[in-house]
Every structure is written in C-alpha cells, then in structure tokens.
Amino acid sequence: MTQLAFVIDLKRCIGCDTCVVGCKVEHRLPDGAFRLQVFDAERAPTPRRPQGGHPVASQNWLPTMCHHCSDAPCADVCPTTALWRRDEDGLIVLDKDKCVGCQRCGEACPYDALSFDAHTGTADKCTACDHRRDEGPACATVCPTGAIHFGDLHDTDSNVHRLLATHEHRRLNESSQAQSNIYYLAP
C-alpha cells in the first residue's frame, strides 16, 4: 500500500519562505491565505532572534502544512464527508463541493493546518499538489536548499524511505495519535 509523505530536513531549512511563495503562486491563493507556513523554533509565525550567542548561535525553522494523517481527526469530524483519506496514496483529500464551512475540521486538526476560505465559504488545505504528480509538490520543487522531500514511505527506492532509514527523525504532536505523515529530520 502506498503512503505518500513529506520529509523535511530541518538542518537545510533556512526560513526563506520560498516554499510558502511557491505554494501561493501554484494555487493562486489570495492575500492572507496559506496552505503552508514556516514557523520559528517556538512556532511563532514571525522571526525571532537566534538562540544562543557567539560563537554558537542557532536559528531553526519549521515548515508545516497538512500532515495527511493516517488517522486524521479532521476527516473523523467532518459531517458531510468532504474530507477523507484516499486509499490509493493515503492523502487527506478535501471535496469543496461537499464542504458546508462548519470549520469543525480546523478545530479538530492537531496541527492547525486547515484554513477557511471566506470567499468560497469552505475549508482549504494542502493537497500535496496532487495535480503535479509527476513534478512533485511545488514547495519541494522550489525549495532552494532541498529541505523538503515527498514520496512513498513504503517504496524502498524512494528518497523519503531512504532518508527515514538513515536519519534520526520525529513527527510533531505524536501524543495526538493522528499519525502525521510529515517527518522532520533532526536539526
């Protein structure tokens, strides 16, 4: 069974927001709308000062989008089944035609990864650029440092499988039991 996932190398992320801009351009998102955000180490949306001091200062960044969870709370609470986990690749899919805009999904998401589009009256989220299956998600394609990787966790030839097999990694908020499919390589 295929399980598509993101692997993000936190050592390589420089907080440049190129992935955010690439996502906004790819999906023609309006001002103030985001499917992907980059936070600092304290999950603040605006940059803070580096931690530590000379000669050992550090600044860490945390790109995050929909985690396409294996046990997605957003899909569990959706009253219209507008959100569901697709069997063929494990992605969490949103059918905006079924969405009634109740925002329960956003409240249930342990990653605050869903937004509400006031113009359409529906939820909005990362699609892993499903329409770009051959090229890969825009965020991974435009990342100038190669920090974002996307592929099948179960394919032993995939880059994400190799990275997870050879690097220490973690998932955010594992206590939620959502089983995130974004893995972060340790900085």
What is shown here, in short?
This protein has 187 residues and is of the alpha+beta class.
Q: Order of strands side by side in the largest beta sheet?
A: 10-1-12-11
CATH architecture label: 2-Layer Sandwich
Order of helices and strands: EHEEEEHEEHEEHEHEE
Major beta sheet summary? 4 strands, mixed
Instruction: Please indicate the percent range of residues in DSSP E strands (runs of 2 or more).
Output: 15-25%
Query: What is the mean predicted local confidence, pLDDT?
Result: 91
The first-level CATH class is given as Alpha Beta
Total count of strands? 12
Helix/strand-derived category reads alpha+beta
What sort of overall outline do the alpha carbons produce when their principal axes are compared?
globular
What does this structure look like?
This protein has 187 residues and is an alpha+beta fold. It has one domain (4-47, 66-185): 2-Layer Sandwich (Alpha-Beta Plaits). 18% of the residues lie in helices and 24% in strands. The protein contains five helices and twelve strands. It has helices at 18-27, 73-77, 104-108, 138-142, 159-166; strands at 4-9, 36-40, 51-53, 56-58, 61-65, 83-85, 92-94, 115-117, 122-124, 148-152, 169-170, 182-185. The strands form five sheets. It has a four-stranded mixed beta sheet. The chain has a two-stranded antiparallel sheet with strand order 2-5. The chain has a two-stranded antiparallel ribbon with strand order 3-4. It starts with a strand and ends with a strand. The model has no long low-confidence stretch (mean pLDDT 91).
